[in-house]
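Late entry, written up from scratch paper. The run itself happened at the end of the previous shift, but nothing got recorded in the book at the time, so transcribing now.
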Amino acid sequence: MEQDFSGKVALVTGGASGIGRAACLQFAARGAAVLVADLDGAGAAALTGEIVAAGGRAEAWEVDVADDTAVAAMVQAALERLGGLDCAFNNAGVAPGFSAFPDVTPDDWSRVIAVNLTGVFQCLRHELPAMAARGGGAIVNTSSGAGVVPAPGQPHYTASKHGVLGLTKVAAQEYAPQGVRVNAILPGTTDTPMLRGYLDENPGVEKIILRTMPMGRLATAEEVAAAAVWLCSEQASFVSGESMLVDGAQVCR
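Output as recorded:
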C-alpha cells in the first residue's frame, strides 16, 4: 500500500538539513504540501526551491523552536499559506559535545533543554489544537537512543530526549479521542551534516562509533526519515504513543 499524502499539509522543523531535509523530500514526493521550518532560513528556502522545481508545493519558514511566539507563527503559517496542518515532524534539535557532569554549565543545560525539550512542547502545544480542529492528524517527535539509555557525557541531552518521550505519551493519550496520533522516533547514530562535522573534527571517533553499531554502519538520514513519514501515514493509523527505535539494533531495549 502506497503512502499517499495528496491534499495533506506536513510541517517539518529542522527541515533544512539531515533527517528533516530527507523527510521534507519524502513528504513532497508523496504529494504533501510541506512547510520547511528551520533556524537556517536560507537553507529552508533553498530546499523549498528544490521541492517546487521538482513539481511539489512547499513554503519556507525561519523559526527558533525555543521561542513560543515564533512557534505559534509557524503553525499559523501552515494554516494560512498551505491551507491546514495534517502532519508534523518535530525534529529540530541540538547535539552538544561531551563533558564531565560537573562541567556542564547552567547555560549549556538551558540551551539544550530549551531546543530539544521545550521546543517540542511548544510545537505540540500549537499543533495539537490545530489538528484537532481539522478532525485529526499525526505528529512525530524526534527523541534518540538517549531517550531510553544514558549518553555518558551528555546529561542535558539525555534528559531532554527522555523528556520528549514523556511529552509524546501524554499528548498521545490526551488527543487520541480527537483523532490525533502522536509518536516518537529514536534515531541511532545517523550520518548527517551535524554529525559529519563533529567526526571531521575528531579523527578516529567514527571507528569507535562503528564498533557499537551491530550493522557495522551509520544510519542514513533517508532511513530515519522514512520511519517518521510512515508513522504519519495511514499505514500507521492505529499506532500512537509509540517510541520507535531506528538504530539498527544498537539499543535493543
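The longest strand covers residues 180-187.
(Scratch paper discarded after transcription.)
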